[in-house]
Write a structure and sequence with these properties.
The chain has 453 residues and is of the alpha/beta class. It has 14 helices and 20 strands. The strands form 5 sheets. The chain has a 10-stranded mixed β-sheet, with helices on both faces. β16 and β17 form a beta hairpin. α3 packs across α4 and α5 packs across α6. The two termini are 34 Å apart. The structure holds inosinic acid (IMP). The site of inosinic acid has 21 residues, from α4. Plays an important role in the de novo pathway of purine nucleotide biosynthesis. Catalyzes the first committed step in the biosynthesis of AMP from IMP.
Length: 453
């Protein structure tokens, strides 16, 4: 298996930065394929903390190529700032180690404005709790076929025509929302200015990936956000505006669907969520507080405190099946170290009836009550453990139960933010794909009810 796709299975913040960094050691190329600078991946390498938003996590390693794929929406000003900020930490970023897909769409200041205006004008219940980075409005313009793309930065006439067209749409919206209209020339001038800093990286990224495939290079696809924030499969409308599912790695980078490789899904040993929206296993009590404090659950990008709760195996299993996940990386197990009892949600009750899946209706999503299984905690330190056999028995039981409930193996366990504090049971790059395919079809042969017993 020469490629691996890493995706979050919850509402983001599963610890993808660390796992991607770990795997990027074996990869030649790291690719972002969706989202934008709403992502926040923290890497701790040799005591230096790197907070990345848009740059692929491979950027901190020498000799790796980082690709920002066409499925990503790019705020060029924010990207230039990030390149400078990470550069100051001693990482050299040049067109030799960073490529931006020429067909990727841009986030403009007007998208940020619109994101903020909408959130501010929404009532507390309708507010999505976005990061106000303009992600949603930028994807709207992409689908509306009026977005500015990275390649347009090199063509003055195209840029002028497209900006004029874009402003007809945005200025009427702005008028309606009581915001100042945007001047065509002013926007064009600022785009011309930033273009010179971005264009050296802008290339047909798909070609580099195709060539890399021919040379048997290893590619790592780095997902951002998480499955429950997926625009189609998540807790709509409390979602982000991209497809966060693994399949998007192919469309969002221009590599064939058969080339995304082993699909590694990440979940914390508990659940968190930032922003609004349903969260059946949320614990607004001392357990939630403990998880938040021990897990340092505060947003990388926004600094907002994250809502915390028990692991939702029912929701996770649904995602594993729908997304085709082949193995699990379980992160932050050490956060549970002091708990006497640990709960796992194995199904829900809806209007008094048991159900074994998470429904799509907004009312039902908010109404379901979790059915919990309670397990004994281990009340000893797992933090920093690097050997599976060193884990306390109760922690092993918890991990095994997660495997049973999800129907796929836990292949990586993370026991602290440090790169070395990781138990690798099975290296996703060393996995035989046929083995995974048969494991997956065996899983699909079982019913959801079997797993939640
Ligand atoms: P947007 O992506 O900024 O439009 O925000 C939409 C929703 O996705 C909000 O609830 C955000 O809090 C959430 N979100 C976006 N990016 C991330 C992330 O990287 N981690 C966790 N939540 C995120």
């Amino acid at each position: 298996m020469s490629n691996v796709t890493v995706v979050g299975l919850q509402w983001g913040d599963e610890g993808k930065g660390k796992i991607v960094d770990l795997l990027s050691e074996q990869a030649d190329i790291v690719v972002r394929f969706q989202g934008g600078n709403n992502a926040g991946h923290t890497l701790v390498v040799n005591d230096i903390t790197y907070k990345l938003s848009l740059l692929p996590s491979g950027i901190v390693r020498k000799g790796k190529l980082s690709v920002i794929g066409n499925g990503v929406v790019i705020d060029p000003w924010s990207l230039v700032d990030e390149i400078e900020r990470i550069g100051k930490l001693g990482v050299s970023i040049t067109p030799q180690n960073l490529i931006i897909a020429d067909n990727a769409c841009l986030i403009l200041p007007l998208h940020r404005d619109l994101d903020a205006l909408r959130e501010e004008n929404a009532g507390p219940k309708a507010r999505i709790g976005t990061l106000k980075r303009g992600i949603g409005p930028a994807y709207e313009d992409k689908v509306g076929r009026r977005a500015i793309r990275a390649c347009d930065l090199g063509e003055k006439t195209t840029l002028q025509n497209k900006v004029e067209r874009l402003l007809i749409h945005h200025n009427s919206l702005r008028k309606g929302l009581g915001a100042k209209e945007i001047d065509t020339q002013e926007l064009l001038e600022s785009l011309y200015k930033i273009a010179s800093k971005i264009l050296p990286y802008v290339k047909p990224a798909w070609k580099y990936l195709y060539n890399a495939k021919g040379q048997n290079k290893k590619i790592l696809f780095e997902g951002a956000q998480g499955a429950m924030l997926d625009i189609e499969h998540g807790t709509y409308p409390y979602v982000t505006s991209s497809n966060t599912y693994a399949g998007q790695a192919a469309v969002g980078s221009g590599i064939g669907v058969g080339s995304i490789g082993y699909i590694l899904g990440l979940t914390k040993a508990y659940t968190t969520r930032v922003g609004g929206g349903p969260f059946p296993t949320e614990q607004s009590n001392s357990v939630g507080k403990l998880l938040q404090e021990k897990g340092n659950e505060f947003g990388t990008v926004s600094g907002r405190s994250r809502r915390c709760g028990w692991l939702d195996a029912c929701m996770l299993r649904q995602t594993v099946i729908k997304e085709g996940v082949q193995g699990i990386a379980l992160t932050k197990i050490d956060v549970l170290d002091s708990l006497k009892e640990i709960k796992i949600c194995v199904g829900y009750k809806l209007d008094g009836k048991k159900i074994d899946y998470y429904p799509s209706s907004q009312i039902a999503q908010a109404k379901v009550e979790p059915i919990y299984e309670t397990m004994a905690g281990w009340q000893t330190k797992t933090q920093g453990l690097r050997d599976f056999d060193a884990l306390p028995k109760a922690a092993i039981r918890y991990i095994k139960r997660i495997e049973e409930l999800l129907g796929v193996p836990v292949v990586i366990i993370s026991t602290s933010p440090e790169r070395e504090d990781t138990i690798v049971i099975k290296n996703p790059y060393a996995t035989d794909n046929t083995e995974n395919l048969s494991a997956h079809s065996a899983l699909l042969g079982r019913t959801l009810a079997d797993a939640s017993r």
